[in-house]
Target: EamA domain-containing protein
Amino acid sequence: MTESLWSSKRSFNLPEGTYLIILAAAIYGLTIVLTKGALEQIPPFTLLCIQTASSVLFFWTIVIFQGIQVPLRWATLKLSLAGLLEPGLSHIFGMFGLALTTASNATFISTTEPAMTMALSWWILREHFNLSFVGLGLLACVGVRFVVTPDGTAITSSSIWGDLLVCLSVLFASLYAITAARSVQRLHPVVLAAIQQSIALILFIMMLVGAFWLGFESFEFTPAMWGNLLIAIASGAFGYGLAFLLYLAAVRYLPASRLSLYLTLTPVFGAISAYFILGERLLVSQGFGGSLIILAVTGISCLPHSK
Model:
């Protein structure tokens, strides 16, 4: 699959890894829609554990059948701890934040992830940006703003704690983005994803047990849930599994800041998927925002970069 992507990339003269991250964004967008549908019958923490367990099984199956060596050393364990950032703490804080604030607030705050990733890349990795890159990045953020909040709503009067938790979720996701660039150079991407998501799964299971014990969540399976359960398993394998693997493969070729800007395509694919799968309307403002994102991503692809 990746060989055909790379060969077609040469025809359009795009930077190495571009098709990988665009495909990952498309799968992420579809996964958001599938997750939204599954949440109608499956509680959040239970769904999170099912999806992560599915992706962990996906990765370890590849490791076993391809005979990929897993180095049993202290350095491997240290690399696995990044899974506590993403999907670990990022997903947990995002979920609690969404429970305390509005969906429009949460999605609006999430649009700051590219800017936050750029700031952290500049501060921690000492990555330098020219004015063209910064301008295109801001254009992409504006486009995301129109896609995720098409009615023009932004920060409203809701719980400030919920908004802060969503901000922390974005921060942890950005921190993972800049650490992944170094980690993927030291360990096979499939092994890296398998151990990091295994660590995150342990954290999610602990949180699920705590939620059941405190009465925050309960789950009783019925035959009517089979459809959503299969959707949860499939979205975990593809959304948390395949898409994450494509992301780690792209990390080898593109810096974290540029990757975060390509991922602004995720809500575009999500809106299109919601239109076809959930029957949601596509507004003119969303089309305008999507056009801005595509324009920004096209411009970013034309800029030179060093990895």
User: Anything to note?
Assistant: Residues 25 and 88 are 19 Å apart (CA to CA). Confidence is low (pLDDT under 50) at residues 1-12. The chain has one domain: 17-302. Residues 189-214 form the longest helix (26 residues).
